[in-house]
Design a protein that fits this description.
Blueprint (H helix, E strand, L loop, with lengths): L16 E5 L6 E2 L2 E2 L3 H15 L3 E5 L16 H11 L3 E4 L7 H8 L6 E4 L13 H9 L3 E4 L10 H9 L2 E4 L1 H15 L5 E5 L8 H10 L2 E4 L4 H7 L14 H14 L2 E3 L3 E5 L13 E4 L8 E5 L1 H12 L3 E5 L12 H12 L3 E4 L3 H8 L8 E2 L4 H7 L5 H4 L5
Parallel strand pairs: 1-4, 1-7, 4-6, 5-6, 7-8, 9-10, 9-15, 10-11, 15-16, 16-17
Antiparallel strand pairs: 2-3, 12-13, 12-14
The structure holds adenosine monophosphate.
Adenosine monophosphate binds next to strand 14.
Length: about 400
């Protein structure tokens, strides 16, 4: 997958109307934004477009209004917050049709370097179906399209794919470029040794990721709930641990594939076990660490053991590129977070390029305070997994090639 896309650095936006698709899908509580990370992450591209004299028209989806105007999912609070963060007015183009008479009038009145924000793109029913009418509406108010929303790059919607096909120029923003550079290109052409670490709950969710990363990496490390299906495939007793019974054969195939390709596939050699799953999840638990082949029939594995944590950290130390997706155990519970912390620490300490897939592993790394030590933490959950599967993402493909 050659990914050499035109970016905001390759175009001249002076005096042009630039539609910039951002990911402003922020958490809201009673109309207040509770986490502004996605807004601050969008600022570099917005500032660049302003500095170059573009008429900057921002758009995004927020939540799942399913084609209806839901006032509680209006992007109005985002315009207020962005105004504060940018130190410049971001005018909100309130419009039930997103691109209707009000939005068109607001665009027509813009001067170079000004910024407006359109209403939630998912207020339009066509948006998630990549319907022609809304794509045309969006294309009609811009000369240039910029896509900086990685979180939706694995979906073909009007505001990332439909409009890109209709706009004369369609490029990626800085956030998107960073995701392509790290998740796309670093996985396709990694500096070796390349170590991939996969964890999380279920094998079934990551079938293609396991297979693709086995092709690309030198060492594949498996932890988390999914490790127990692999251990079962090895013929071990796994007690009441999480298991995907239909995927036992698949795990065996992957072990054979690793053998055939001469790749290292590392599985837990010991496990942190309990009698039952803690309830609440961060409630008290009694743990024991046992060898991976000595889990009693009435116990469950909820984290990798200490010996495994050391072995995985050693494998990370030997790497030049590390990609990590999915926690090593039930990290929501401090007693069962030790394996995840050990792996996070090994990534924080290495000079290797360290890339964290979105979702739970990103949350775990940030929650543990290791965020600033990583080379790249993906902003997309589903999109980053599809990148790791080696799939082409429609939102990325839609941008012009260099
Ligand atoms: P995923 O969404 O697939 O990345 O899975 C993340 C979830 O897997 C987290 O909520 C963890 O608590 C859970 N998890 C990790 N290890 C285990 C395990 N050994 N047993 C059950 N759940 C686990």
């Amino acid at each position: 997958m050659g990914l050499n896309k035109k970016s905001v650095d390759d175009i001249n936006v002076n005096g042009k109307r630039v539609l910039c698709r951002c990911d402003f899908n922020v958490p809201l509580k009673e109309g207040q934004i509770t986490d502004i990370n996605r807004l601050t992450a969008a600022l570099p591209t917005i500032k660049k477009l302003i500095a170059d004299g573009g008429k900057v028209i921002l758009c995004s989806h927020l939540g799942k209004p399913k084609g209806e105007v839901k006032p509680e999912l209006s992007l109005a609070p985002v315009a207020v917050k962005l105004t504060e963060l940018l130190g410049q007015e971001v005018k909100f183009a309130a419009d039930p049709e997103v691109v209707g008479a009000n939005a068109r009038a607001a665009v027509a009145a813009m001067k170079d370097g000004e910024v407006i924000l359109l209403e939630n793109t998912r207020f339009r029913a066509e948006e998630t179906k990549n319907g022609e009418a809304f794509s045309q509406d969006l294309a009609s108010i811009c000369d240039i399209f910029v896509n900086d929303a990685f979180g939706t790059a694995h979906r073909a919607h009007c505001s990332n794919v439909g409009v890109a096909a209709l706009a004369d120029t369609a490029v990626v923003g800085y956030l998107m470029q960073k995701e392509i550079d790290f998740l796309g290109n670093a996985v396709e052409t990694p500096v070796r040794p390349f170590v991939a670490i996969l964890g999380g709950a279920k094998v079934a969710d990551k079938l293609n990721v396991i297979s693709n990363l086995l092709d690309k990496c030198d060492t594949l490390i498996i932890g988390g709930g999914m490790a127990y299906t692999f251990l079962k495939a090895k013929g071990y007793e796994i007690g009441t641990s999480l298991v995907d019974n239909e995927k036992v054969d698949y795990c065996r195939e992957m072990m054979e594939k690793a053998e055939k390709l001469g790749k290292k596939l590392l599985l837990p050699v010991d496990s942190t076990i309990t009698k039952s799953f803690p309830s609440p999840i961060d409630g008290p638990v009694d743990i024991t660490v046992v060898k991976a082949d000595a889990i009693p029939a009435d116990m469950m594995g909820l984290d990798i053991g200490t010996e495994t944590a050391t072995m995985y950290a050693d494998a990370v130390k030997a790497a030049k590129t590390v990609v990590w997706n999915g926690p090593m155990g039930v990290f929501e519970n401090p007693v069962l977070a030790k394996g995840t912390i050990a792996v996070a620490e090994s990534l924080a300490e290495t000079d290797a390029t360290t890339i964290i897939g979105g979702g739970d592993s990103a949350a775990a790394v940030n929650q543990l305070g290791f965020g600033p030590k990583m080379t790249h933490i993906s902003t997309g959950g589903g999109a980053s997994l599809e990148f790791l599967e080696g799939k082409e993402l429609p939102g990325v493909v839609a941008a012009n090639d260099k």
